[in-house]
Here is the input.
Amino acid sequence: QVENRFNDGKCDREGRIWAGRSHDPETSATGYLYRIDPDLSHSRWDGPYICPNGPAISPDDSTLYHVDTFGGTVWAFDKHPDGTISNRREFARLDSKKEGFPDGLTVDNENRVWLAHWGGSRITCFSPQGERLGFVELPVPQVTSCTFGGPDLSVLYITTAARNLDLVKYPLAGALFRVPTKTTGSSSPAFAG
Here is the structure.
């Protein structure tokens, strides 16, 4: 029996959900990137992966980013108005031994990608071309995802985990962090179904 669970998901401007489904307990490559349409039909678009993560969609809805956590790779796709994706290409790669694993991500209004590092204690900001622009260091190792919020969408909210960690050493593990930025994100579209 395949034991899969949905992980991260985001809606596109047409109200479709893009979500990764991963193997639980993360030992077999049985996970894929799915699209769930407003009529609740679904289709599989990329994989297989042990733990797909992300996804995130550019503000103009033209690029979809998807993470292969165990492969250490962030993929970019051209996203089309009809809900198809094409032209898969490597956007960024992490050295998991030095930087942790890529996890959840978001895109700001300048098309910069903000990526969480599971086991890497940080969020890295990438240019639209995949160049590293900077990072936000955190006092916990398991950084899981991020999104923009606040009245003007300029605050980066960062989620973390506490799985198998020493909470005496990392008392803030599992906390939600709030970091003011000099950029803004866009509001997330709702599911249309």
Q: What stands out?
A: Residues 4-180 form a domain with the Neuraminidase fold (CATH 2.120.10.30). The chain has one domain: 4-180.
